[in-house]
Amino acid sequence: MPSFNKTISSPEDFDPDAFSQAAIALQIAPELEHSGTVHSHRKGQLIVSLHGAVSCEVKDAIWLVPPQHAVWIPSSTSHSVRITKNASTCFLFIEPSAIAMPSSCCTLYISPLIKELIQHLAAQDPAYQAESKTSRLANVLLEHLCDAPLKDLHLPISDHPKIKQLTNALFAYPDDRTTLRQWAERLATSERSLARLVKSATGLSFGRWRQQLHLMIALSQLAEGQSVQNVAGNLGYDSVNAFITMFKKALGKSPTQYFASLR
Predict the structure, then answer these.
(1) What's the 3-state SS for 142-182?
(2) Which domains, ranges and CATH numbers included, belong to the chain?
(3) DSSP 228
(4) Is the overall model pTM greater than 0.85, yes or no?
(5) Which of 211, 209, 161 is nearest to 187 (CA)?
(6) pLDDT tens digits for range 75-105
(7) Is there a smaller number of Cβ atoms within 10 Å at the N or the C end of the chain?
């Protein structure tokens, strides 16, 4: 049985499939920004943000993990993980047969109890014995995880070249207020055709899709500690109030209230 190396400097240095236990955990200490390569593993993976923001990209979506939330990556799903500078993150790896988890990627709200159980499990040797204290703790954790509520915190994307160009450009320059008509001209298509393409590829209108992209970026930057005023400017809003209105409409709370509720 492999031994656990607590000095792991990168998540890619740890192979969860080398262990047969139902659930094992790994805590990634705050460090320089990490952008992982595309990979997959037999175990399903729960990516938990303790502090800062983490994002995960799969084939058709980018999932954001703000503090007190987690993104679930089902077994054998190709994905890459990006951890922002000074973020603190836990990975929980779960055997496919151990628990009934969603069959597709999703964001979960993580209660203080589940968070503490995951952090405690991360401090244990993953090669724990069956019927041990650690094994019983893992079973309690999995039982509570079944009740974690789902949250809609992802951005639908597509491999279509035009959608990919849109996505890359707006992530690089989120304050770009280019209209759908102007984007159609840039992409050598009609406005109607581009509108249909965005809708069919993402399930959202162009305006709603760009707003969701802004929400993802805002949550990430706010989790990093940037001020509401700076984030509003980064996203090209004419005023802080306009940004707060968008945020409140999407999540039901102002940025300050939202992050206070997470704490």
Answers:
(1) HHHHCCCCEECCEEECCCCHHHHHHHHHHHHCCCCCCCHHH
(2) 11-151 (2.60.120.280), 158-262 (1.10.10.60)
(3) H
(4) no
(5) 161
(6) 999 998 888 766 788 899 999 999 989 888 8
(7) C
